[in-house]
Write a structure and sequence with these properties.
Chain lengths: ~240, ~260
């Protein structure tokens, strides 16, 4: 579904992505991990066309996407910070995104699940951080896209909403979608991810299942495994 | 683009700053007409306010709106939209809402005082047109500056500096230039120089329209002499239009290359 070849991106003298290659990521949940500044967000933003790479190619479903825009209709992206136009009402924002997307939209069930019914007529400026994040989730999952990208999706959620989010992600996986997640909460990754893509200094350090990562590092859990890798790379 | 435009417009129409701006013009209009019920004289007074104030408001709103809507732009960038659609949609939404505040704020008091029954109606329209165009020019300039500077303080500071340069410093430099080279024929040089300042252009356009030669000033007189009133108005209007088109063009070019 997604393949990345020889991707380069530097900001000034800072080399963020240094010839990154990812063999096709197909169906399933993929966690993109790495220490701060390893290029996770830059990679995601390159896939979305928000950051323009210096060199390389990104293919989605066999088609080159760099410089294109229509392909974003097949991606649902959930940004890290949920910050919306303050004076719009929730329902207006939902309708706006709805009008921009090509595919069928089903928002009612999600609004019900995340208890947003009473907030629909409220302005976004009056919502709490957690409620904004719930709106963010509804906006992401209401469209039926084959590729879903989630950047720190758990921020600010209460346990009930977190459980609903996990169920939602698993449901989407069962439909045969490709889901990319970045998170610093390792228990969440351990529970959800089928495979891990570990970035280090702008390149892939590890790409495989969580089990094989644990075997390789001989750690008890994912958090320790990741810490070991980061520490070894610093030495 | 219309979709983004409408949402930006609605978003701004509900912001309290649009109302503050609207109420300011409403009060200004009523006060001017209350103290001085001569419509024609009020238009001249208003001109001096508009050619300085609309650029300032356009400048501040343009930069602030860009920085405040950054995360929202990121949300839009992830949708199947061209970058041009997003940024032009936002820009026009913002410019139109500012223009609406200006036109409604001044239109209401002048309507109450019977502008439609007066021969000054066309002068008043010229004034509103010029105010609207200046709003577009300076909103575009500051939006472009904000787009080019990730640092908010730097962007806003630079945008205000551009306004200050056009509104105040430019005329000062111009005057020094005229005094220094007074022995030379300066007609065309000064005419050329005023073409590069949208605020000067607007002032000349309004004065030509109002036909008050006493207020024309040096370049205005040269311009009227050179072009005649109607050609002069055409020349200044076309230059002003260029002042809108070029920055918008730059916004589109810049937005295509930027990383978010």
């Amino acid at each position: 579904m997604i393949a990345v070849k020889n991707l380069h991106k530097s900001f000034g003298s800072l080399n963020v992505l240094d010839g990154l290659d990812i063999q096709a990521l197909d169906q399933g949940i993929f966690a993109i991990l790495g220490p701060n500044g390893s290029g996770k967000t830059t990679l995601i933003k390159c896939i979305l066309g928000m950051v323009i790479p210096d060199k390389g190619s990104i293919q989605i479903n066999g088609k080159e996407v760099l410089g294109e825009w229509a392909y974003r209709g097949s991606i649902s992206y959930m940004p890290q910070i949920a910050n919306f136009p303050p004076n719009l009402k929730v329902i207006e924002l939902i309708n706006m995104i709805k009008s921009l997307r090509p595919e069928a939209i089903h928002e009612e069930a999600l609004i019900e699940t995340f208890g947003l019914k009473d907030s629909l007529e409220k302005k976004l400026v009056n919502l709490s951080g957690g409620t904004k994040q719930k709106v963010n989730i509804v906006l992401t999952f209401m469209s039926d896209s084959p590729l879903i990208i989630l950047d720190e999706p758990t921020t600010g959620l209460d346990p009930l909403a977190l459980t609903s989010l996990k169920q939602l992600i698993l449901q989407e996986r069962d439909k045969g979608k490709t889901i990319l997640i970045t998170s610093h909460i390792m228990s969440f990754i351990e529970e959800m991810a089928d495979e891990v893509v570990f970035l280090l200094e702008g390149n892939i350090f590890f790409n495989g299942t969580i089990d094989s990562l644990m075997k390789q590092t001989k750690a008890r859990n994912l958090e320790l495994a990741i810490s070991t890798i980061i520490q070894n790379s610093n030495d | 683009m219309i979709n983004i435009l409408i949402h930006s417009f609605y978003d701004l129409m509900r912001s309290k700053w649009s109302y503050v701006y609207f109420l300011f013009y409403l009060m200004l209009g009523f006060l001017l007409l209350f103290f001085n019920s001569d419509l024609s004289k009020s238009i001249i007074t208003l001109m001096n306010v508009i050619v300085v104030l609309t650029p300032l408001i356009g400048t501040i709103f343009g930069a602030m709106y860009f920085y405040n809507s950054k995360e929202f732009v990121e949300l839009l960038l992830a949708q199947p939209l061209k970058r041009r659609t997003i940024f032009l949609g936002q820009f026009f939404g913002l410019s139109l809402s500012l223009t609406l505040s200006l036109v409604a704020g001044l239109g209401i008091p002048f309507m109450v005082y019977g502008i439609f029954m007066s021969s000054d109606i066309f002068n008043f329209f010229t004034l509103l047109m010029v105010g609207s165009v200046l709003t577009f020019v300076f909103t575009a300039l500051s939006y472009y500056i904000a787009l080019s500077n990730d640092d908010k303080i730097k962007g806003i500071g630079f945008a205000i500096l551009v306004w200050l340069f056009m509104a105040v410093i430019y005329d000062g430099l111009f005057l020094i230039f005229l005094v220094l080279f007074e022995e030379y024929p300066l007609e065309y040089a000064s005419l050329g120089a005023s073409m590069f300042n949208p605020i000067d252009l607007s002032r000349m356009l309004i004065i030509l329209k109002l036909d008050i030669s006493a207020l024309l000033g040096y370049t205005g007189a040269v311009l009227q002499n050179f072009f005649g009133t109607s050609w002069g108005m055409l020349a200044t209007s076309s230059m002003l239009l260029l002042w809108v088109i070029v920055p918008i063009n730059r916004i589109v070019a810049k937005s295509k290359k930027k990383d978010f």
